[in-house]
């Protein structure tokens, strides 16, 4: 099996014929530099080629080196520089393209730059044929997924009619409707990878989930996200769901490298397909939490967000200039602004208890009262008022949960 999900017999014939003609090793890689097919060796292999054969991967550092060459934007064939420290010899590299899309590369080791013009032309001819085969295979795979993807869009969407139709479609296909159903969203951000590379990595993650033995599911790739629904025979613990999300993230890290930002959000389990949309919306909010709160280590579960859950559900474009926001800005404008903010936050988090706040800040109580009076004067808010304390505390939490610049 290949990274593209099918036997590579037709590609094998083309690549083996080219390799015999050149008397050199030839490799076809997908956009993430994962091998689709490699010819036999001609005593020209390097450590990277050997690792690809034995371990079915070339390693994160070599992958990063290749991706840094920005091959998807090359105008045509070119020379991939070697990396001696990584055991990588220089290669002649031809981008594989069809209908403007980048499908991968053909690479031939050429340490001595001895390929002739005729040989390079033969590589180009093979590349065009392989690209056509890959494009046709992807088109067939996309057609097969069409109905399933439409059903998942309906299941996650807001239209009641589409959702009812989606439930019927999934029931008819044999997807359980009375198991414990879990919605999960995994999101990737990366400046290094093209849209095609991100989509390929997400599709591979989806195929891994759909082929799982004990917890199979379905997935929809939308932009930089994969939106999943899995079914389980019994109610899963949050810890088990976090482990599942962690495995998906780990697979994406292996494909894209540690520089890619990969986060996952998990909704509460539900017991009917008609309720999956609620769980999906929760998972989307949990993704926000995973992206914004480093302490969550990239995975957030709705059931663990507590009071932050409704705040994270707020739109990012709230109208500016809320009264409590202006009050905090007045603190910030003061010379002692950071210290007063810290004092206010501690006071509110300790339920307005002066003794506990003083201990937490290691302050004499007289100093604490002086700071609280400053806060009252600068903000105009009465810290003895429950409503005023709530407004300030809410604004502090909203700001803490806002998207990071």
TrEMBL record:
Ranges for domain CdaR GGDEF-like: 163-289
Positions of the PucR C-terminal helix-turn-helix domain: 340-398
Signal peptide: none
InterPro entries hit by this protein: CdaR-like_regulators (IPR051448), CdaR_GGDEF (IPR041522), PucR_C-HTH_dom (IPR025736), PucR_C-HTH_sf (IPR042070)
Membership in a protein family: Belongs to the CdaR family.
Stated name of the protein: Helix-turn-helix domain-containing protein
Organism: Pseudonocardia kongjuensis
């Amino acid at each position: 099996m290949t990274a593209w999900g099918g036997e590579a017999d037709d590609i094998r014939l083309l690549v083996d014929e080219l390799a015999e003609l050149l008397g050199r090793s030839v490799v076809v890689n997908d956009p993430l530099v994962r091998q689709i097919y490699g010819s036999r060796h001609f005593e020209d292999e390097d450590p990277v080629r050997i690792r690809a054969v034995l371990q079915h991967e070339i390693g994160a550092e070599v992958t990063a080196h290749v991706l840094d060459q920005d091959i998807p934007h090359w105008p045509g064939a070119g020379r991939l520089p070697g990396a001696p420290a990584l055991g990588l010899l220089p290669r002649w590299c031809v981008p594989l393209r069809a209908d403007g899309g980048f499908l991968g590369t053909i690479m031939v080791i050429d340490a001595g730059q001895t390929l002739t013009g005729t040989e390079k032309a033969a590589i180009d001819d093979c590349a065009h044929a392989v690209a056509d085969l890959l494009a046709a295979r992807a088109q067939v795979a996309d057609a097969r997924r069409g109905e399933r993807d439409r059903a998942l869009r309906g299941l996650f969407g807001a239209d009641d009619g589409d959702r009812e139709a989606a439930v019927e479609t999934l029931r008819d296909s044999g997807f359980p409707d009375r198991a414990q159903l879990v919605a999960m969203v995994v999101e990737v951000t990366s400046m290094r990878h093209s849209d095609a590379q991100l989509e390929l990595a997400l599709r591979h993650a989806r195929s891994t989930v759909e082929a799982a033995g004990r917890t199979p599911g379905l997935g929809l790739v939308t932009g930089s996200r994969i939106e999943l629904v899995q079914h389980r025979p019994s109610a899963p613990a949050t810890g088990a769901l976090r482990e599942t999300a962690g495995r998906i993230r780990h697979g994406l890290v292996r494909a894209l490298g540690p520089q890619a930002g990969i986060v996952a959000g998990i909704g509460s389990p539900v017991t009917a397909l008609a309720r999956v949309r609620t769980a999906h919306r929760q998972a989307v909010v949990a993704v926000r939490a995973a992206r914004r709160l480093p302490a969550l280590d990239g995975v957030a579960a709705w059931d663990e967000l507590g009071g932050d859950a409704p705040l994270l559900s707020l739109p990012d474009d709230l109208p500016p200039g809320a009264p409590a926001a202006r009050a905090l800005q007045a603190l910030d404008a003061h010379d002692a602004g950071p210290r007063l903010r810290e004092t206010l936050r501690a006071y509110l988090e300790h339920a307005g208890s002066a003794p506990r706040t003083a201990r937490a800040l290691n302050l004499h109580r007289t100093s604490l009262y002086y700071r609280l009076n400053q806060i009252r004067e600068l903000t105009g808010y009465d810290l003895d008022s429950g409503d005023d304390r709530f407004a300030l505390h809410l604004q502090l939490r909203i700001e803490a949960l806002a998207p990071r610049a």
